[in-house]
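Late entry, evening session. Most of the bench is empty. Finally got around to the prediction I had been postponing all week. Sequence below, unchanged from the version circulated by S.P.
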Amino acid sequence: MTLDDILTGLFPNGRKIETNGAMIAGQAVLPDGNLIHVLGVTQGQPLGVDEAIVLAGRVIEIVKSGDRAPILFPVDSASQRMSKRDELLGLSEYLSHLAKALLLAEAEGHRTVGLLYGGSAAGAFIATALATGTLVALPGAHPAVMDLPSMARVTKLPIDVLKAKAEATPVFTPGLDNMVQTGGVHVVWDENAPLAPQLAAVLQRARGQDDRGRLGTERGGRRKAAELAERVARAAAPHQGARHA
């Protein structure tokens, strides 16, 4: 599906969304008449400092508006832009700023929904799709936290060792099915069914704690994440109470 097909299916009541290079930004009307903000990265392009600071600024403007309308964040990107310029300007800080802006929006009452409909990888994937409160995908999406050759360079582990691990656990393996197993993707939408009701169902989910660890356990993709997160939360609770006393 093209982005235009997706947006038409999601917002039959109208939208005003502008394209600026590989970014989109605007608003649309949900079937119930309520407003939704739309921000995203498209065209399979890398995410660099220029795009990250603009998108983060847009998110902060939405939070400042106080309308608490949901934010849909479509994603079809490459990885982060690994140019010398971007690295010298502090690319990791720009990406983390964007991720924190999305987390802030969710904390301030804006339901944030990532929609992965193409590719995405590494820092670009973490700072956009994985930083939203709920990540959904369309068939054909192809995410990767990091490809195995890059992982081998970072971890210093032989590529054959990583390939063997990738066969044993989806954590090491790129691809939509593996990301679903880890709980990173909440649900894969049915592209043959109307999209607007599927988005409405996501927006109607009860707001609560991040359930990706639980989903990863239930789906067998990340068997320890939820347990470890609970142990860390229990260990931190007394210290939080003392700090607020």
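Two things to note before I forget:
The mean pLDDT is 91.
The beta strands are 15-20, 23-29, 35-47, 71-80, 112-116, 119-121, 134-137, 142-144, 187-188.
Will write this up properly tomorrow.
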